[in-house]
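Troubleshooting: if your tokenizer reports a length mismatch, compare your output against this known-good record of 158 residues.
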Amino acid sequence: MTPPPSDADPGFEVLAGERYLSLTTYRRSGEAVATPVWFALLDGPRVVVHTEAASGKARRLRAKPACTVAPCDVRGRVHGPEVAARARLLDGEQDAEPAASARRALARTYGWQWRAFQAFGAVRRRLGRGHDTVELEVRPAASPSVLDPADLDERERS
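Known-good structure output:
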């Protein structure tokens, strides 16, 4: 049995009861880019996020899957500890069921707001103004809890 996390080593339980999380991804230069997003907290532990396939966060995560998450408000103001994580895009045929499961989890979490968001997206796609979307699966990094982008590059090389 694993011991409960300490304040120095928070896990995704810091996101319980939250409506938004700040997803911080890293540019090739190492500059951090934080984005407030809707999410669903799943067992595993893991978090799923829905975004446009061509969004900056998706592009950055394709290049470097290391990221951090933290509870935040709708404007992205963080009000809890950051947790180091790694993300992967659920965008291939082999990820069809996990992506569908992620969308169902988001629908349960956000209810009518999610359905309205999806309906609006469907209308945009019919008008030729829609964009391809992708789900992100985010899992806590092994350790340490908060990673420095410079450390990430060094760790990925070894």
